Amino acid sequence: IYSDVETDGDCEGTKVIKRTWSLEDKCGNRAADQVQTITVSDTTRPTFTRPADITIYTDANCDYDAEPSATGDVTDESDNCSTGIEAIYSDAVADGDCQGKKVITRTWSLADNCGNEAETQVQTITVLDTIAPTFTAPANTTIYTDAHCEYDAEPSVTGDVTNESDNCSTGIEATYTDDTVADATCEGKKVITRTWS
User: How deeply is 79 buried, as exposed, middle or buried, from its count of CB atoms within 10 A (0-12, 13-18, 19+)?
Assistant: First the structure.
C-alpha cells in the first residue's frame, strides 16, 4: 500500500509527490518503507493571437501613437495551468520611403509561469503621413517688356513661394507651371497663369 504527501512545485501546474510504499506479510512482519518521488511538470505551451496588422497616421507634429491601446493588444492569452500571464512585445522600427513613413515590426511573445513559450507572432504597423504641406503663393504682379519686347518672368522677378511647411518633410520646394496666353488686342501683352504646387 502507499500514502502520498503532495507539495506544490516552483510554478503553477507542477507538483512533487512523495509516495511512501509499505508492505506487511500476514504475520505482521513489515518491510522497510520505500519512498518514490513523482514530479509533475507542465510542458504545455500557452497560446495567444496577435493583433491584426494596422496602419496609423502621423499628426501635425509628425508624431504617432503606436502603443497597444492604439494599435491593438493581445486579449486571449491562455494556458493549461498558469493564470494571469500577459503577452509582451518588442519593436523594430524601419524608415519608409519618405519622411514620416515608418514600418514597425512588432514581435509578440508569451511564456507561462513554468517557462513554456508560445510561438512568437509578428504584427506589422505601418505609419503614414497623410497631411498635405502648406505654402503661400506670391501675389499677382505686372512686369514690363524691355526695348526688344522681351521680359523676365523668373520667380526672382515676379515673386517666389514663401513659407513652405510640412509636418514631416524637410527641404521641400514649391514648383510651378506656366500657361501663357497672348492678348490679341496688343502685341507684346501676355497673361501668364502660373500654377504653383
Answer: buried
Helices within 30-165 (DSSP H only): 68-71, 155-158
Each residue's pLDDT tens digit, 84-133: 999 999 999 999 999 999 999 999 999 999 999 999 999 999 999 999 99
Question: String of b and e for 31-49 (b: at least 16 CB within 10 Å)?
Answer: eeeeeeeeeeebeeebebe
- Return the C-alpha cell found at 4: 502520498
Global confidence as pTM: 0.80
Cell reading at 105: 515590426
Tens digits of residue pLDDT in 164-177: 999 999 999 999 99
CA atoms within 13 A on the CB side of 80: 12
pLDDT digits (tens, 9 = 90+) for 46-72: 999 999 999 999 999 999 999 999 999
> Are 179 and 165 within 8 A, CB to CB?
no
Residue 109 contacts residue 117 (beta carbons within 8 Å) = yes
